[in-house]
Amino acid sequence: APGLIKIRLKFLNDTEEVAVARPEDTVGILKSKCFPGQESQMKLIYRGQLLQDQARTLRSLRITDNCVIHCHRSRAASAAAAVLPEPGAAGPAPPGLPLAGGTLMVPTVMVVLALGWYFRINYRQLFTAPATVSLIGATVLVTFLAFGLYGQ
Hints:
Blueprint: E1 5-11, E2 16-21, H1 27-34, E3 42-46, E4 49-50, E5 67-73, H2 79-83, H3 105-122, H4 129-150
Parallel strand pairs: 1-5
Antiparallel strand pairs: 1-2, 3-4, 3-5
Keywords: Membrane, Transmembrane, Transmembrane helix
Organism: Elachura formosa
Domain Ubiquitin-like: 5-78
């Protein structure tokens, strides 16, 4: 129909839908047409910018025929949406590789602390009282963090 534009809505799982709208429609109207009842959960992104102003028209945002708008459902989903996953959505992500960057951080810090204690015990004359207190504090902090991360 004349005066209507097609908008490609692309989701995080690489699925696409086509929406038909008028250039005079606002972002809020587009959300209510495409996602009835879920308007507050949906985030629309066009050319890297989040479309937050619900009153802006598609024309004022320079959204033309066959443009792509990326859609993201926020985590503040209702209980019904949590029970019924979106079509085509994958289940929970599998755990990462065993040697991901973050998994080596705690052992590395533990080795550095062990070296600190080794030098503290063998070279006492080089450690002042504030340095020893700092080493004790860092050890306690890292211990609590390690148990907090791995004790779950």
